[in-house]
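Posting here for the record, re: adenosine-5'-diphosphate.
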Amino acid sequence: MSICADYQELDGDVCISDDYSKPKLPKGALERISLADAGAHSEADEIVDTGEDGKVQKPKYKYMKFIPEAIKYSAIGHKFATTKPDKYTQIGREYNMCFKMLRSDSKLIKTVLSSYGYLQCSRRNNDVNLIWSNTHLSQSVLRTFLPWQRINHFPRSVGITKKDLLHQNLSLMCTKFPIGFDFFPKSYIFPDDKAILLAKVAGSTTMKPHISKPAASSRGRGISILNKPSELSAIICDERSKVLVSEYITNPLLVDRKKFDLRIYVAVMSFHPMIAYMFNDGLARFAVGEYTEEIGDWDDVSKHLTNYSLHKNNKDFIKNNDAADEDVGHKWTLSGLLRNLAASGHDTKLLMIRIEDIVVKTLLSIQSQVAAASRAAGLAPNSCFELFGFDILIDTDLKPWLLEVNLSPSLACDAPLDSVLKTKVICDTLNLAMVPLVYGKNSRNVSAGEEENINDDNDLASMVSASSGPTSRSTSPVSNASSAKKSRSFATTPFRRYTAGDVRPSGCVSSSTKIKTCASRMKCDRLRKGGFIRIFPRKNTYYMYKDIITETNVQNLDNLLYKEVNGVDPEVGDLADDMTFVHSELMSCDEYNSFDKLSPVTQQVLKEAYDEAEAYEAHKHLNGTKLYPRALPKLRPETRRRTLSCVATDEQRREQRITAFLAQKSVLAAVAKDPDYQFTQAAEIAQERKQNPYL
Ligand code: ADP
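Prediction output follows.
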């Protein structure tokens, strides 16, 4: 879709009915019709309110649509920024769209949202449209959520994003479905399983290599490879700092004799029923050294670990400086890697189907937990969305192994390739999340703005002067929103905030309403998913995963969604029989190493997925260099709008960071002078950092 069409959708005259500001909750279901039916732009889709009698009423929400190109209009020095600087920012400003970041400082998120005129608020502001957080929010906070607000995590998704819980959940599934869940390396949680593993290796001086990872860590920190029983006993852990010890995969697939792993982006829009997407591109991250299994080599991180953060400062690390070259240096795109593997005769489409299967099974393993937590928090069906980073290792049989699932995949843009790919991922994720444009909350935010004083600037020098005197309402960006619209929203304030004890109406959403909402979302995703491929539900997925769904869930909403979308009951369909052999063939990668070798029924079940898998291999970033010649562009200062309290918080964090940096430097200097330096000071800093992750 062209930029123009995107913009028109937002600019359309059917956006929000006056009715919406009335403090009544919508009756009946949500359903999508094309705007052509509603007499509006033919290209766009809209979710509209339908009454109980089924009559289509006026549209309820308009939804933001993000495109990476919008950044150009806010970037310093870009020609669009001079000719049409407000083209995209005016959208968010008109509606006073607000966001806040919790335990995250992602430049990419701030850049995308600022390019659309979003106002960044401090963590205390609860009237924001979007929360981008690097941690989960508590149930009591989620209970106060309103239906138009969006948060980038589902409650309890920690069940797959923390290494020990992932192992626990997958092990449980493995006991129920031993054939389909053979994709996570055999693992033990220390200290709980320490005795079991030690008993296994007792009496011998050697053992199969294992890898130990702190359960709650990331970026390769605290990892070691162990090949002696004595090293197992030496692992330091306790109930509060558990360690995952996994069998080490000794036969990784190598490219140019180097080990690599894959970062796969997965967006989940609903857990119950499940609606999940996988991005058609990702990253392949290479180790810098050539892989060997020689004695004494196991400690060499440069050969055995593939974390970018560990290698980026290595003298041998080759950076990719051109987004159009997808297979150069130590970080490739997934599509660049797949083309390389396909050229060597591998069936890469089957590989991607297997990865999709791993993703769906992993998500289903926590479906019931997330569903229960969402119900308890009384969340509306569209409140949460989540972008996971799945880390996958491929072995020489082209079998994908799940290493871990990241709660907040890195959005750092160190190279043009990162910027191009991650901006697309974020824009498409936000599009799928369907962030509504709402007027009503402006009344609240304007008063929040009065308290906090809205500020335009983002450089530190201007912050100081700005904070010395309050910005008057007439000059604040919030106040610049159309006064006619504002007076309308001041008249009524429909968005009552609920306290933790209240039962919020959205918490009582019936299953049928939920199913209708999800079905309507799925129809809308045609224009919103961008590079994402819907991996669940699609044609035969209900049949494939039916046993897992029925085993783990009391209420089978996936079945109801299937009925709603396809108009038939899947339980009476042709493919309702046992699918164990499909899972068995998917797991047996050495035997079934190409699509032709799969049994005819398995081929039939996987046909749609196989055809769609073509998209993973396609060239995608040819134009990327034009958009990002280096990395993420710098925004014009006036584009990044923050409330004064947000500015104050940022400034406080910056000071803390500087203090910590100086303290660390003095410790290093002291150590350099005196090798016997006592690390009490360093320990204090570490403790402080633990308490304040922004340091
Ligand atoms: P972190 O969260 O610290 O990045 P990971 O689980 O992603 O931890 O592991 C870091 C790296 O270690 C991976 O990128 C991979 O190269 C390697 N690795 C992890 N687990 C295994 C394993 N079981 N077998 C072989 N290599 C592994």
